[in-house]
């Protein structure tokens, strides 16, 4: 393919990079980062099945992405040359500023609760969105989705129209290898690398393939609403900058929502509410000043897109079935907000790509120097809000939805579990997973929505790469079904109501500390990798899966 397609894809290959093997050594005591590192590393070796032993899980492609993109970034100015303007927008080749976009003709309206569009994207943080009510005694279905929004050819001046899956690396398969497998323009320099496990008609059309299976299932079972975990639009969210008035929808926003959302999730999915959060790509992947605020604003221009704030709650009532649900939508992008010079390519706050960035007009970070602190403050306020809301909830079920995968902020989610959290729904890893966190908290990874190529090849009838989860809610159970891109149900699990919820208003207990593993077990396999990690040496608990494979320990300060 020509440079016009290669470079924008290479820009963000590492935007979801997880830790390299030695990165825990330099995390300055951030135990949650250490825990996430070893947890993700363990996940690459084990897949936790419901109440069964572990099975092999291939490595996450993210592990190799950071060094690859760092090498590329080092020479990108020379590589870009005269192609910089069509690739990145007229203002982006030096400052990395997002391209500008005119205002569209879309109109914003007050919502049913009388709320006008906010003056800033953060104005309604913590809002309780109006109750949704679903009468009837039939089955009640909720679909989960993440990492789904394909990129548009028009953004890159390379010809063609419509959606395109964002090619990503796989084991022994580079970005260039995957591009050669795609080869829509017919100018690949060599054959497709078999190591990529490329499946034509699936990998290059993944978002549409998954959406078609959603439509087919919805036509049979019905669906009431969606839980959307973010990375809604690749590669950098809305293809314009933050800070536009919140009562205006930019043309870039209109085009991307029209082609990657409305046109794709149509038919039986029309009119179904999407409760949504932001992923790291929605902020800009390696910077924070793409138009994440436009995704909030679009709530007032859509009858089904719901993201009124960066974090909010939704109460859902099923009067004829006698139960209700409290859903808490959370922003976990603090996990990609690092120091000014750390992790180029997967750091929302890197100084190189945010030199002129300023999202203060919409309530965001005012500068790159204040970026990490802004995300930290957002998390702190949200965590306090979440604990208060969960402790006050009298609903039959409590569900949390966020972008970063099972294992981030593990002690905190253990605390939430002790106060009644029934289910955690996440994404970021580009496949479908079912895991169990401390206290047997069920955690889903639903990152196989198809906006980006999956972690591994989607071969086989039982593939768990591309797909979605179908949650059947009732008073007595949440039935979890993993539906893959072929429409096959490849995993089923039932969640009972959490029996250990304390009385409303009771003090939330601290998360229980994990029991240390016997020395013999600590010296073998994955456990040895955890216990030998210098960053974890002075911590209580084991950051690895327990020997039975059905519980994940945590790293906590003694």
TrEMBL record:
Q: Molecular function (GO) terms listed?
A: hydrolase activity
Name of this protein: Calcineurin-like phosphoesterase domain-containing protein
Does the keyword Hydrolase belong to this entry?
yes
Q: Which residues form the signal peptide?
A: 1-17
The alphabetical list of record keywords is: Hydrolase, Signal
Pfam families from the xrefs?
A: Metallophos (PF00149)
Identify the domain of life.
Eukaryota
Record-annotated Calcineurin-like phosphoesterase domain positions: 216-431
**UniProt entry tagged with the keyword rRNA processing:** no
């Amino acid at each position: 393919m020509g440079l016009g397609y290669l470079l924008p894809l290479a820009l963000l290959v590492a935007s979801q990079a997880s830790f390299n093997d030695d990165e825990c050594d330099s995390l300055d005591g951030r135990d949650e980062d250490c825990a996430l590192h070893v947890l993700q590393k363990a996940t690459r070796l084990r897949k936790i099945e419901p109440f069964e032993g572990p099975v092999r899980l291939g490595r996450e492609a993210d592990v190799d992405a950071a060094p690859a993109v760092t090498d590329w970034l080092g020479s990108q100015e020379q590589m870009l040359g005269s192609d910089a303007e069509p690739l990145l927008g007229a203002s982006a080749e030096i400052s990395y500023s997002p391209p500008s976009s005119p205002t569209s003709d879309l109109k914003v309206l007050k919502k049913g609760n009388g709320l006008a569009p906010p003056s800033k994207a953060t104005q309604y943080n913590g809002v309780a969105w109006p109750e949704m009510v679903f009468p009837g005694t039939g089955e009640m279905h909720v679909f989960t989705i993440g990492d789904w929004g394909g990129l548009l050819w028009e953004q890159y001046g390379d010809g063609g129209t419509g959606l395109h899956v964002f090619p990503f690396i796989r084991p022994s398969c580079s970005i260039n290898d995957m591009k050669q497998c795609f080869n829509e323009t017919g100018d690949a320099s060599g054959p497709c690398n078999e190591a990529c496990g490329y499946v034509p008609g699936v990998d290059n059309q993944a978002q549409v393939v998954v959406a078609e299976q959603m439509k087919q299932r919805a036509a049979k079972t019905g669906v009431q609403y969606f839980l959307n975990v973010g990375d809604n639009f690749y590669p950098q969210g809305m293809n314009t900058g933050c800070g536009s008035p919140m009562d205006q929808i930019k043309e870039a926003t209109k085009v991307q929502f029209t082609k990657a959302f409305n046109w794709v999730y149509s038919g039986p999915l029309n009119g179904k509410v999407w409760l949504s959060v932001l992923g790291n790509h929605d902020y800009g992947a390696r910077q924070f000043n793409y138009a994440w605020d436009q995704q909030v604003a679009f709530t007032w221009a859509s009858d089904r897109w719901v993201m009124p704030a960066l974090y909010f709650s939704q109460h859902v009532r099923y009067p004829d079935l006698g139960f209700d649900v409290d859903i808490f939508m959370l922003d976990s992008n603090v996990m990609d907000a690092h120091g000014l010079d750390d992790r180029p390519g997967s750091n929302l706050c890197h100084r190189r790509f945010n030199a002129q960035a300023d999202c203060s007009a919409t309530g965001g970070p005012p500068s790159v120097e204040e970026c990490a602190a802004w995300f930290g403050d957002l998390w702190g306020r949200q965590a306090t809000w979440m604990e208060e809301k969960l402790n006050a909830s009298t609903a039959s079920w409590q569900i949390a939805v966020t972008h970063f995968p099972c294992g981030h902020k593990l002690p905190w989610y253990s605390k939430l579990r002790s106060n009644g959290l029934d289910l955690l729904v996440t994404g970021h890893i580009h496949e479908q997973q079912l895991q169990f966190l401390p206290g047997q908290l069920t955690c889903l990874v639903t990152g196989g929505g198809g906006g980006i190529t999956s972690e591994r090849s989607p071969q086989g009838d039982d593939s768990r790469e591309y797909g979605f989860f179908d949650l059947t809610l009732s008073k007595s159970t949440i039935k979890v079904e993993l539906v893959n891109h072929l429409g096959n149900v490849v995993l089923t699990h039932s969640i009972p109501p959490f029996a250990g919820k304390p009385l409303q208003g009771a003090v939330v207990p601290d998360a229980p500390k994990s029991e240390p593993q016997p020395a013999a077990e600590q010296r073998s396999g994955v456990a040895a990798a955890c216990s030998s990690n210098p960053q974890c040496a002075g911590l209580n608990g084991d950051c690895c899966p327990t020997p039975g494979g059905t519980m994940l320990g945590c790293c906590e300060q003694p």
